[in-house]
Amino acid sequence: MEVPGVFLVRSDLGVKTLQEFIDLARSKPGDLNYSSGGSGSIPHLGTELLLTKAGIEVEHIPYPGNAPALLALVAGEVDMMQSNVGDVLQYIKDGTLIPLAVNTPERVPQIPDVPTVAEAGIADYNAVGWHGFFAPAGTPKEIVDKINQGIRDALKTPAISEYFSNLGYIVHTGSPEDFARLVHDDIQNYAIAVKASGATAE
Prior knowledge:
Number of strands: 7
Order of helices and strands: EEHEHEHEHEEHHH
CATH class of the largest domain: Alpha Beta
Strand order of the largest sheet: 4-3-5-2-6
Structural class: alpha/beta
Radius of gyration: 18 Å
Helix content: 40-55%
Strand content: 5-15%
Distance between the termini: 24 Å
């Protein structure tokens, strides 16, 4: 289950695109800031990865959860944040927040006019949140495969698919081996952000 994220800025910051934000940050190194739901969270590490690849400095302001981090952006207390798409659709629609780019490899159906980070000029960026199922180590493969197939069948039903779509999620199904590769690749990917930022989990 993919949880698309979108980078947003407050509407009065004066930027409309990711490149404009990068240019502003370069002109004011260390003056801009961003909020997240806590140190070590996916929005924190995903933003740090973006900043590292863009070569800019933006101060991290952690909050105790995504909701207060989002409210801080809406209130103009911070300049930028990354949030789950489903949580910010109304703010985007009414112009309260300006979307810069989504963190997914492809555009998100709920906000199709918003480019991906790659389309906005930052290549090789991947920091998409996800939900998945794990079993204890040593669980027999036939049991793992049976559970996997049951979950995949359930996610294909129209009611469940529509439910998650309304939350802003994108349903992806695959084998246990596919999921294992995703976990492995994300560990390597986020290691770049952890090293660059010195992030620790709260």
